[in-house]
Amino acid sequence: MLTALDEAAVGRWSRAAVDALRTARGSIDDLNVFPVPDGDTGTNLLLTAESAADAVAVADGSESSWSVFARGAVLGARGNSGAILAQLLRGLADTLAGAGPVDGALFATALRGAAGSAYEAVAEPEEGTFLTVARAGAEAAAAAVQAGRTALAEVVRATADGARKALQGTTAQLAALREAGVVDAGGAGWCVVLDALVATVTGVEPDRAPLVAGEGARRAQAGTREAPHHPHAGPGSEVQFLLADSSERAVDRLRTELGWLGDCLVVVGVDTPEGRQWNVHVHVSDVGAAVEAGIRAGRPHRIAVTPLAPVSVAAPLPGARATVAVVPAGWVADGLAELFTAEGVVVVPVGAGPLDEEALLDAVLGTGAADVVVLPNDRAVAPVAGRAAARAREEGRDVAVVPTRSPLQGLAAVAVADPQRRFADDVIGMAEAAAATRWAEVTVAETEALTLAGRCHPGDALGMVEGEVVVIGPALVTVACDLLDRLLAGGGELVSLVGGRLGDAAAAHLAAHHPTVEVVRHPGAPGSRPLLIGVE
Fold first, then answer.
1. Which of 196, 245, 455, 536 qualifies as a FRET site for 47, CA 20 to 30 Å off?
2. 199/363 Cα distance (integer angstroms)
3. Residues 6+ apart with CB under 8 A from 386
4. pLDDT digit string (tens) for 317-351?
5. Which of 106, 101, 43, 50 lies closest to 73 in space, CA to CA?
């Protein structure tokens, strides 16, 4: 039985929460009917908790585990529920980081502040939701302390029991929950996290009735009725991104602007070694407008766009044209998704697994355009893109797949797109621009390996052309300059550079040694590869 939460206990709670959410994920997904019945609340809470726990697991002990726990949650928050969970953990850290061992009374105080901050993070808070359950748990903790039950075990039990009682009441508080006959999914997830805390403190898991969704929830998720509180007519999309290089004033303006564009807006900020960042979540119909608002506020990165509901097969808009680009994992981290979005392209990000054909089809149909260009941006994605395009044609769309093998080729294709040309001619022009673009990158070797350029060792700078290592050296700048010289030996009129300080050094080298070459610079995202190069 723990009498206080120390740094090690934070780590144990983080792991226990992940285990509990992993077990309950399916049940929580089944409860998900509000604000959109898309059946992913349990999954989003689990992914957020995993990000938080992973951050604690690799921390070096130089700062409070509460701060690390909160930062991991904010930077990895997924969905509306994940953003609220992240804000709750950040609210706890605001009080508990650096406070030493946390007893019952202090934890109750922190819970009250965390619940209040969660309400503030949500643009339009509603009762009968995750927020209600979190506040009720905090109020129960405060009541226990006021009654003299100040031991940590008593406080966390009171918190979990109070939250669970409030959870049962959510069904009557929201029409969507009442119609489906379920409790709030996000609130259920918070109860699971609190029960994991009780088990961490007491060593005994609370005995709870299982979470069960009724037929109403299954009908709602199947889309047999319109989702309540849907942001706008049409399917709509969930947009989520991290925002860097911004300020509190700019973020306040962003909140106002996104509030006009959509709903389910949650903005959570956290301090990182690279400066303050914000996790921004909103449901909108105009994805491009939401991302543009983010660009005005700072530098959005790790942009994720998810359709909120099945795309209706409405008649396409005659003459309307759109481009859909797949951005594979890794390239998303390099900031390429933001570059496509800034050009008005619909982005379909891909995680570690294979591309979801349904997600790509939904993105194509969701544009509402009669003519759609699809940029697979990866050789492995091309077959999936072809199948999705064929299915979209059956729905009356004219869809062309331009065979781009990297996002840099995709950007070259987008740069020459001209909606004034006939669609077929435009597709040919985009394909020619993509084919004429060679792509390369400068990175750092992580392991020893034998390459076409010889043996490399961990820490070596590597210059790669279309996936093959062609230059190995001790310094990134030297390798970058050598790589550019090799690429331009075969000709080239335009060089695109994506990266930070190494990009600046590469641009200076081009100005000095290749003055006739046009250079386009794009900033890289934090943690991205040092330099990406496209040569046309």
1. 245
2. 43
3. 401
4. 677 899 999 987 666 555 778 888 888 899 888 76
5. 50
For residue 235, what is the DSSP state? -
- Mean pLDDT, residues 367-390: 88
Buried b (16+ CB within 10 A) or exposed e, 110-121: bbbebbebbeeb
Residue 535's beta-bridge partner residues?
Answer: 438, 495
Helix, coil or strand: residue 374? strand
3-state secondary structure string across 249-272: HHHHHHHHHHHHHEEEEEEEEEEE
How many residues belong to the chain? 536
- Give the count of beta carbons closer than 10 Å to the beta carbon of residue 140: 22
Mean pLDDT over each residue of the chain, to the nearest integer: 86
Do 36 and 308 touch, CB atoms closer than 8 A? yes
Which of 108-112, 255-259, 499-503 has maximum average pLDDT?
Answer: 108-112
Q: What is the DSSP string of 391-442?
A: HHHHTT-EEEE---SSHHHHHHHHHT--TTS-HHHHHHHHHHHHHT-EEEEE
Backbone angles phi, psi at 404, to 5 degrees: -80, 140
Structure tokens at 442: 């400068």
* Neighbouring residues of 360: CB distance < 8 A, sequence distance ≥ 6: 324, 326, 348, 374, 384, 385, 388
Sign of CA dihedral 387, 390, 394, 396: positive
Give the pLDDT confidence of 213-272 residue by residue, as tens digits: 444 444 444 443 333 333 333 347 888 999 999 999 999 999 988 888 888 899 999 999
> Do residues 434 and 404 lie in contact, with contact meaning Cβ atoms separated by under 8 Å?
yes
Instruction: Quote the crossing angle between the two packed helices 476-489 and 501-513, to the nearest 10°.
Output: 40
For residue 217, give both structure tokens. 């929830």
Distance CA 197, CA 206 (A): 10
Q: With 0.70 as the threshold, say if the pTM is over it.
A: no
Q: Dump pLDDT digits (tens) for 434-468.
A: 888 888 989 899 899 998 889 999 999 999 998 88
Q: Give the other-Cβ count within 10 Å of 257's Cβ.
A: 18
